[in-house]
Backbone:
């Protein structure tokens, strides 16, 4: 029987004979086939060659392949009872020479027959095969014969086990022992533990026994070593080199059962590697087939790292720096060394520091910088003492200079941004140069939040002459011995007639202020003329100028006089004089303009706009022969809301200083609605130029709406599709658009 190592689930094919009638012994054959097995086991519940009982017997046969798939078939056998028969025992195999058996069974004999076998039961048989023939005879002359074979086999079979097995697979499958026998073609073989069973780790002895048909046995043994532990393979650390041919020592592979396990690497040691990083994979396999692998990287780096030094340093001892950096095309961490090293004490003057970066492939790159040892402190100058009323006063940092540092760092205590307390605070400011040499200066901040005290502010008084003077103010202050005093107007000023408010402000060094306010009423003779006079016709009259604070004997005269004819179209100066009997006098003047010509005014053209309010301030223009500045008013006014779609009349009037006026009008229409425009359908043509009808446009107010297309009708078009967009615009600049496609196929 062959053993297929593949799994399948297809049942074998079995074909039984048709039902039949026969005499004993009954023989038959069953046909079987399988898609995988060459030889399929067939078992029938009544085997061929047997003596059947009288009547009909149903025989069931089952075919089973090596995968355990099975199929059955049945047939009926009817025994012909008219013929006597004799049923012998089955063939006998024995290792003993004396063999006994039961008498054969007679069938269909009407009376018990006499049975005789040759040789007889309990006969001493020779080695080898002997045919025993038995005959049955009854008194009525019926007879039947049968035979069987007795094989005397005292020789054990031979069995040869497979070689010892070393494997990593569980369950363990091993080859069957090779068995032969002098008489039995298929001795039975059993092995413990059996093949295809689960084994314990380590070494197990398998004992196999061969048994032939005569029950002679023979044994053999072999070992199965189950090794499921892979070898241990240690790869070297990643290799960084600056040359392309790279070698490394042989890998020291160890294994739990195999003393010598070789490792193979890809690429191998001694390989010419490309520039860059290559992953090397090394693999070891022990005799049980267990494998293990490890990897390491070979980095061929022929490029130097890049190092960056700081700028030149100015420092005091010890000198330290942290800003030397390096990068590399391969390494993330590059070793950096400097000579002299950071933290060293340097000699006075300049010292060149050389720093070198080294990558893992031992490529190097260096940079240098200069360290200047500076042990001279900076110079610092504090501001003058500060007096203020603001607790968060703004104070500029003191000025500092240094022999090596153009801008030393200055720190003040308390900070110049502090909130100061009332009174005097001493501020200490310290300058630090780049070498951390220091120098300090001091100043005071006086916080004074109390206003000065004015002890003699004058009471209100009347002055009959001008200029007017008053006594100096007397002031007291907590910190400022001489606060600043300013009066508006100042003492000694020429003041106009009437009440004059004098405001005196006292300010101390902290900016605190105190006020002294009083009123000086001035009563000096004064002549007040009327405003400039503008009229449209002669003669020109005016009210007499007013003489204030004069004696009742005052006389007022003007030149030219009131009621005089003045030149038309020009300005004339009128001078008036007042004099009383006590010698008081004053003069005033005003202008007289006679203008009988109306100004010129120009309105804009009628306008249509899209929204309200509407403005036209700069569009109405007016001029006059005499006045340079005219009064212009419009009804409705510019920036008014105008009703939608209702033409509204606007009247604008220009008036000059003489009261002459002129007017103009224009129309304003508010049109918030867009026009409508209708494009033609898409146009297909085979040649240029391409034209289309005039487009239909309309508007709610504008009878002739202008439109234009981005490509004019009658133009030459390129081959393919072109979109034409047309826009309609009404007088209010409202727009509407449409588009269509022109397709030219040349």
Residues:
């Amino acid at each position: 029987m062959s053993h297929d190592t593949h799994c399948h689930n297809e049942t074998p094919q079995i074909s039984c004979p048709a039902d039949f009638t026969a005499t004993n012994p009954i023989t038959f054959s069953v046909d079987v086939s399988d898609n995988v097995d060459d030889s399929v086991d067939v078992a029938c519940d009544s085997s061929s060659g047997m003596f059947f009982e009288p009547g009909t017997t149903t025989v069931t046969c089952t075919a089973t392949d090596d995968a355990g798939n099975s199929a059955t078939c049945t047939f009926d056998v009817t025994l012909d009872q008219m013929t006597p028969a004799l049923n012998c025992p089955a063939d006998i195999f024995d290792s003993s020479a004396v063999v006994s058996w039961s008498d054969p069974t007679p069938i269909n004999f009407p009376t018990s027959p006499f049975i005789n076998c040759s040789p007889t039961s309990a006969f001493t048989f020779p080695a080898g095969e002997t045919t025993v023939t038995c005959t049955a005879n009854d008194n009525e002359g019926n007879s039947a014969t049968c035979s069987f074979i007795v094989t005397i086999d005292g020789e054990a079979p031979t069995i040869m086990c497979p070689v010892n097995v070393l494997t990593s697979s569980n369950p363990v499958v091993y080859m069957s022992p090779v068995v032969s026998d002098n008489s039995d073609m298929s001795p039975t073989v059993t092995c413990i533990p059996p093949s295809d069973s689960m084994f314990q780790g380590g070494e197990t002895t398998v004992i196999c026994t061969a048994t032939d048909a005569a029950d002679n046995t023979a044994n053999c043994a072999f070992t199965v070593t189950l090794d499921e532990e892979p070898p241990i393979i240690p790869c070297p650390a990643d290799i960084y080199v600056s040359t392309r041919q790279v070698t490394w020592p042989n890998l020291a592979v160890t294994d739990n059962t195999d003393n010598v396990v070789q490792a193979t690497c890809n690429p191998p040691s001694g390989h010419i590697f490309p520039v860059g990083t290559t992953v090397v994979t090394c693999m070891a396999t022990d005799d049980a087939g267990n494998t293990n692998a490890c990897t390491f990287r070979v980095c061929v780096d022929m490029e130097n790292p890049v190092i960056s030094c700081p700028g030149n340093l100015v420092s005091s001892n010890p000198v330290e720096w942290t800003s030397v950096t390096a990068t590399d095309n391969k390494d993330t961490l590059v070793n950096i060394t400097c000579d002299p090293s950071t933290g060293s004490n340097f000699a006075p003057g300049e010292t060149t520091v050389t720093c070198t970066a080294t990558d893992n492939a031992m490529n190097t790159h260096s940079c240098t910088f200069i360290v200047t040892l500076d042990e001279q402190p900076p110079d610092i100058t504090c501001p003058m003492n500060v007096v203020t009323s603001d607790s968060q006063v703004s104070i500029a940092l003191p000025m500092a200079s240094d022999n090596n540092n153009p801008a030393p760092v200055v720190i003040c205590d308390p900070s110049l941004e502090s909130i100061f307390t009332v009174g005097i605070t001493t501020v200490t400011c310290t300058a630090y140069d780049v070498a951390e040499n220091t120098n300090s200066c001091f100043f005071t901040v006086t916080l004074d939040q109390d206003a000065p005290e004015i002890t003699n502010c004058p009471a209100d008084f009347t002055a009959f002459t001008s200029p007017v003077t008053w006594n100096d103010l007397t002031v007291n202050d907590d910190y400022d011995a001489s606060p600043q005093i300013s009066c508006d107007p100042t003492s000694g000023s020429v003041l106009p007639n009437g009440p004059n408010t004098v405001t005196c402000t006292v300010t101390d060094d902290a900016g605190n202020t105190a006020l002294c306010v009083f009123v000086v009423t001035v009563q000096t003779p004064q002549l007040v003329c009327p405003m400039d006079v503008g009229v449209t016709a002669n003669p020109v009259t005016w009210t007499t100028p007013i003489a204030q604070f004069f004696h009742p004997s005052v006389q007022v005269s003007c030149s030219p006089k009131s009621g005089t004819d003045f030149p038309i179209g020009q300005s004339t100066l009128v001078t008036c004089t007042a004099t009383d009997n006590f010698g008081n006098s004053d003069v005033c003047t005003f202008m007289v303009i006679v203008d009988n010509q109306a100004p010129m005014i120009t309105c804009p053209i009628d306008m249509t706009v899209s929204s309200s309010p509407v403005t036209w301030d700069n569009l109405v223009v007016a001029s006059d022969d005499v006045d340079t500045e005219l009064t212009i008013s419009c009804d409705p006014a510019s920036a008014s809301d105008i009703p939608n779609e209702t033409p509204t009349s606007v009247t604008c009037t220009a008036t000059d200083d003489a009261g002459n006026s002129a007017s103009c009008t224009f129309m304003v229409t508010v049109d918030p609605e867009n026009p409508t425009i209708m494009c033609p359908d898409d146009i297909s043509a085979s040649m240029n130029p391409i034209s289309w009808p005039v487009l239909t446009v309309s508007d709610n107010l504008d009878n002739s709406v202008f439109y234009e297309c981005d490509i004019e009708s009658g133009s030459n078009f390129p081959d393919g599709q072109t979109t034409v967009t047309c826009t309609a615009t009404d007088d209010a600049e409202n727009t509407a658009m449409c588009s269509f496609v022109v397709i030219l196929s040349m």
